[in-house]
Amino acid sequence: MVKVLISLSVLAAAATAGSVTELPESVTKLIDYRTDPCDDFYQYACGAWYKDAVIPPDEHEIDTSFNKIHIQNQAVLRKIYSDNKPKLGEFYNSCLDTATLSSLGLTPLEDSFKAIRSANTTLDLLIVAGKLAKNGIPAF
Question: Which Gene Ontology terms describe the biological processes this protein takes part in (predicted)?
Answer without folding.
Answer: protein processing
